[in-house]
Amino acid sequence: MFSLFSKIPSVSTKELETRLDKKIVLLDVRTPAEFKGGHIPQAINKPLNKMNTYQGKEKEVYLICQSGMRSKKAAKTLKNKGYDVINVRGGMSQWSGTIKRGK
């Protein structure tokens, strides 16, 4: 079981950018409206309030939100479900790479 004291691994937005060519799973936990406003092209929108229903087949999942707080909560939820999670520090507010608008 996940304890409050176990650390969630994290990467910077720059580190994330170097990993995107490796076919990683990146979940954007912001609201659908925030997601449509601009997101990383490979990201899949899975809002924080729906995280407990996530059933991806991959073991390793990267999580991003606007600032890093919601993705940290989402990481705890998924870690409890047995996923290896990596939080993206700073979130979209720190992202300087390509952004896609719309769905």
UniProtKB/TrEMBL annotation:
It comes from Candidatus Vagococcus giribetii. Residues 20-100 form the Rhodanese domain. This is Rhodanese-like domain-containing protein. CDD domains: RHOD (cd00158). It comes from the Bacteria. Pfam families: Rhodanese (PF00581). InterPro entries: GlpE_sulfurtransferase (IPR050229), Rhodanese-like_dom (IPR001763), Rhodanese-like_dom_sf (IPR036873).
